[in-house]
């Protein structure tokens, strides 16, 4: 139809709609969500764009039948899964250009701003249930870190420091002077670095599955050898991109899925669909970002950042977590004076998938 908005094809069935947020439904963009400008208009090297009300761009996962026909079957499945997940959470996916490069994120709810940062191998989709649970009391922003989900990797290898700077650049771009912050696993390490380095920006902090490991020679060695490792992984990126569809299928195959579930989960997931989404996201992570996630628990920057955090802080741990042990979480907890610790029983490394109701109850109480 002639009145339909123009459509620009994006990978994995996403389409970029140029209809203004005012023309979309209220559920598509809450009143306090920022208007964002098209990525193509501002290169990654220039200053953060001015946010213009009423000229927003919205990423939609509702690909047309013609668009879906051009996709691989597993890509169509991924598009449909995300559409259904966002419909359940009431979230809308946006993509903006920050001063450091493009970032994709989910937004839902209204109220004081709360930033949510995903963990190892995940994406913003891991927080979809939390966005729905807190939507009545918080304006939630769940980020895809660079190299994860739908945020492209940066040219330079990621570190906890640069990822923290990406979070601040995001907050600057959407106009958030102060905000509450929650992170899981790698995202918790990034959140700790943000709160430690930018104490004036963070008002409350929740750290899920974050610990410090004082003796980890294998991770320390890997961290020290990052330059040649990152160079090799960067040179191999074309191969990884070519291999991505196969890797997505392999990651969701029973042998690998069971292997990961044995490591990350204590029992059957309470949200099987979110677990499948996690496996798909895990398969698509930028290799250099994956190494950063692996070494975060032993990174000295985390211990240093924790010692400088002065805002009210909550630690959440799974008692049966095999990735970050309860003793490691307690070691991190002891570095922040007046912080609190909540332990979820019968829970491994992914409480959003295993114990979503209990986690939501804990976070609602903390961000009250």
TrEMBL record:
Protein name, per record: AB hydrolase-1 domain-containing protein
GO molecular function: hydrolase activity
Species assigned in the record: Candidatus Chloroploca asiatica
Entry superkingdom: Bacteria
Keyword line: Hydrolase
Residue ranges annotated for the AB hydrolase-1 domain, each copy included: 112-356
One Pfam family recorded for the sequence: Abhydrolase_1
Example of a GO cellular component annotation carried by this entry: membrane
InterPro entries associated with the record: AB_hydrolase_1 (IPR000073), AB_hydrolase_fold (IPR029058), AB_hydrolase_sf (IPR050266), Epox_hydrolase-like (IPR000639)
Region annotation (Disordered) ranges: 1-77
UniProt keyword Cell cycle, yes or no: no
Biased composition (Low complexity): 33-50
């Amino acid at each position: 139809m002639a009145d339909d908005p123009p459509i620009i094809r994006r990978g994995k069935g996403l389409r970029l709609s140029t209809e203004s947020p005012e023309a979309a439904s209220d559920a598509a963009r809450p009143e306090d969500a920022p208007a964002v400008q098209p990525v193509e208009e501002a290169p990654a090297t220039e200053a953060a764009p001015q946010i213009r009300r009423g000229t927003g761009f919205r990423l939609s996962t509702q690909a047309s039948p013609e668009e879906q026909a051009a996709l691989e079957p597993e890509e169509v499945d991924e598009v449909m899964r995300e559409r259904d997940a966002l419909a359940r959470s009431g979230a809308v996916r946006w993509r903006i250009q920050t001063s450091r490069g493009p970032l994709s994120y989910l937004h839902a709810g209204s109220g004081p701003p709360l930033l949510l940062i995903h963990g190892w191998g995940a994406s913003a989709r891991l927080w979809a249930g939390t966005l729905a649970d807190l939507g009545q009391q918080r304006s939630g922003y769940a980020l895809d870190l660079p190299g994860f989900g739908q945020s492209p990797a940066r040219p330079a290898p990621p570190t906890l420091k640069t990822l923290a700077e990406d979070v601040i650049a995001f907050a600057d771009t959407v106009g958030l002077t102060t905000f509450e912050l929650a992170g899981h696993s790698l995202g918790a390490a990034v959140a700790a670095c943000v709160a430690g380095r930018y104490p004036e920006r963070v008002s409350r902090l929740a750290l899920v599955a974050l610990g410090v490991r004082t003796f980890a020679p294998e991770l320390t060695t890997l961290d020290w050898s990052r330059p040649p490792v990152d160079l090799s992984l960067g040179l191999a990126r074309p191969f990884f991109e070519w291999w991505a569809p196969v890797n997505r299928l392999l990651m969701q195959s029973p042998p690998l899925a069971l292997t990961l579930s044995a490591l990350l989960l204590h029992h059957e997931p309470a949200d099987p669909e979110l677990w499948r989404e996690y496996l798909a996201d895990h398969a698509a992570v930028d290799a250099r970002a994956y190494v950063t996630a692996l070494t975060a628990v032993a990174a000295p920057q985390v211990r240093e950042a924790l010692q400088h955090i002065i805002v009210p802080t909550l630690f959440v741990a799974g008692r049966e977590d095999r990735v970050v042990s309860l003793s490691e979480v307690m070691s991190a907890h002891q570095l922040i004076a007046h912080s609190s610790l909540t332990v979820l029983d019968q829970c491994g490394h992914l409480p959003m998938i295993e114990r979503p109701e209990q986690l939501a109850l804990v976070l609602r109480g903390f961000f009250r």
